[in-house]
Amino acid sequence: MLPDHPVGWIVLSYSGDPTAPPQRPILRVLRGADDAVQDFVLPGAAQGLAHWLGLIPPDAREIRLSTGADFTLERVGARRETGVLAQCLLRRPWRCVAALYERARGSERRYRDILRGACAVTPMSRFPSWAATRTRPIRIAPSALRIRCVLLARPGEVAALSATRDALAAQTLRPESVCVAWAGAAPVSGAGQMSHRAWDEAACLADDLGAADALCLLRPGDVPEPEALALLGQALSESDIAYGDAIGPDRRPQLKPDWSPDFALATGYPGFPLLLSGTWLSTSFARPAGPLAEIASAVVVAAVTSAARVAHVPRILARTVGDGLDPPTRAASLDTARSLEALALRAEIHGGAVRVEWPLADPAPLVSVVIPSRDRLDLITRVCRGVLHETAYPSIELIIVDNGSTDPAVLEHYATLRGDARVRILMDPQPFNFAAMVNAGVAVASGAVVVLLNNDVAVLEPGWLEAMVRQACRPNVGAVGAKLLYGDGTLQHVGVVVGLGGRAGHILRRRPGDTPGHLGRLRVAHEVSAVTAACLAVAREKYLAVGGFDAEAFPVDFNDVDFCLRLGAAGWKTVWTPAATLAHLESVSRGPSVGAKRARFEQEAARFSERWRAVIRHDPFYHPALSLTTFGEDLE
């Protein structure tokens, strides 16, 4: 609890321990005589220190902070409203105009969020200055872990070795030994205090361990921070593999998600340095190492096939110096594609990333497409045409759950649709409950896979359904989401970040449709915490296993996010894929949430926050340094 709490705009500065599990603090405001609750999710202290700019309402009676044991509140400062408005005016003039408009119409939430987004959020391009004010040195207890470093070198990289050598010599946890493994003959002259040898493709990587407990893989030009090996070693105490964030050769930050196997297979994002447990190497990687250029890909494939425990340290642990140190992106992608042969998977290269094609049974399983709808002839005719006549998938059942349509033209259209043996229409004129409608449609479905589809979605290309079914049929996958575009071609849905906007939200909304995303993640299928029910595929048995949508707690909103998180709790991950791209006119058939709709939304939001507070505090696929205020990949 904050004693003598201020009212108005405040800045909190606090520190955290990067060695502790990531957990964003939550600030709770109790308002008015009835102690209405308002929660704010604060940034994580990924680099050691964090700042939060917030607006405490005038009717606040009490402020509480929910934090981890590593949290230290260092400063509480007040800011004048005029100062915040002036800062917004300088940075984003039109945002200042919008904020004043929202204040005039009495929307405290929009006024606050617009100003916070303009004044408290930093673009990724300004990471160096952002990090300079937040990076704190770390004190880590001494460790007896013995680490051997192996530098994977290619001809012409002799000069780059010196920077890596000096950085390893400055480690707080000094490596026991350093070896440079060359692709080709080792140079005659050494780089000092390092052994050199030619890379042996037929040897096992575990043979490099010697008497060490762990093996650290780097490349010449990788410059680890002084605490890098100590932090990775600490993370390795309860895992098989550990990796951290980095500054790439392009000087851009690589703020990585927690372990994401699909994303790692497609992009190799863990990168270097990579710390491998000697025990895991000996038991799960006991095979020929293969070409030096493919080692990182081979380690990722081995980590996936062995279900390795992989730890992420969400802090910049290394930077890459020099020019041309990274292999060309396409060559690296080819290495990954070749490594996927170990999983008997096909792969194609798109934009420098690998798109994995998962197998599909022959014959293809029946898919039940469930569409909740009411009136709106223009919408229902378009989506039905897209599913029945513009989709290439061979085995489809279409189920329309109608919530009391009265438009004669729609009812006439239904009469026409009933002439198609693939179509079933379920009349459900009860008070609107989206979750209950979806459950009713799935209850009568015959397909092995169910696809939930909004009536305001349009099919753009014929292969969308097959791409989703290939993912949904994987044993460890629960929900599968698609890439959805607004009518103007900008992004509407590329996955849900839990915690965004305080509860959950769509990342990168309104960005150009070809936006690659941080680390190129929008080019490939990858794990996310949740996807929207506007277009969601799931095996019917998995849907039923978790009880479907929670129609009592979340009749209209958050039911899809809650469903995905319950699938995750049951052991099935959620995957988003760009291989299925459709258009979505979001909520065009329902309209905006105002008045009673807004009150109902807030009630469901409160239930969601209480049920999934742990995920709100740390979405494992969204870095703790990234902002939850804006819908972009910005820093806060």
How many helices? The count is: 18
The CATH architecture of the largest domain would be Alpha-Beta Complex
Mean pLDDT figure: 90
Distance between the termini: 23 Å
Just give the CATH class of the largest domain: Alpha Beta
Bin the helical content: 25-40%
How would you describe the overall organization of this protein?
- By secondary structure, the chain is an alpha/beta fold.
- Helix 2 packs antiparallel against helix 3 (108-119) and helix 9 (295-305) packs parallel to helix 10 (329-339).
- Strands 18, 19, 20, 21, 22, 23, 24, 27, 28 and 29 form a ten-stranded mixed beta sheet that branches. Strands 7, 8, 9, 10, 11, 12, 13, 14 and 15 form a nine-stranded mixed beta sheet that branches. Strands 4-1-6 form a three-stranded antiparallel beta sheet.
- A hairpin with a 4-residue loop joins strand 2 and strand 3.
- The protein has two domains: 147-357, Spore Coat Polysaccharide Biosynthesis Protein SpsA, Chain A (Alpha-Beta Complex), CATH 3.90.550.10; 367-617, Spore Coat Polysaccharide Biosynthesis Protein SpsA, Chain A, CATH 3.90.550.
- Mean pLDDT is 90; it is low at 324-332.
Brief overview:
The protein is built from 18 helices and 29 strands.
Q: Which properties best describe this structure?
A:
2 domains; nine-stranded mixed beta sheet; Spore Coat Polysaccharide Biosynthesis Protein SpsA, Chain A; alpha/beta; ten-stranded mixed beta sheet; 636 residues
Strand-helix topology:
Layout: E1 8-15, E2 26-31, E3 36-41, E4 49-56, E5 60-66, E6 72-79, H1 81-91, H2 93-104, H3 108-119, H4 127-132, E7 147-153, H5 161-169, E8 177-182, E9 195-198, E10 214-218, E11 222-224, H6 228-236, E12 241-247, E13 253-254, H7 261-267, E14 274-277, H8 278-284, H9 295-305, E15 310-320, H10 329-339, E16 346-350, E17 353-357, E18 367-373, H11 377-389, E19 396-402, H12 408-417, E20 423-427, H13 434-443, E21 449-453, E22 457-459, H14 464-472, E23 477-485, E24 491-493, E25 496-498, E26 504-506, E27 526-528, E28 535-539, H15 540-545, H16 559-569, E29 573-584, H17 596-611, H18 613-617
Parallel strand pairs: 7-8, 7-10, 8-9, 12-15, 18-19, 18-21, 19-20, 23-29
Antiparallel strand pairs: 1-4, 1-6, 2-3, 2-5, 10-14, 11-15, 12-13, 12-14, 16-17, 21-28, 22-29, 23-24, 23-28, 25-26, 27-29
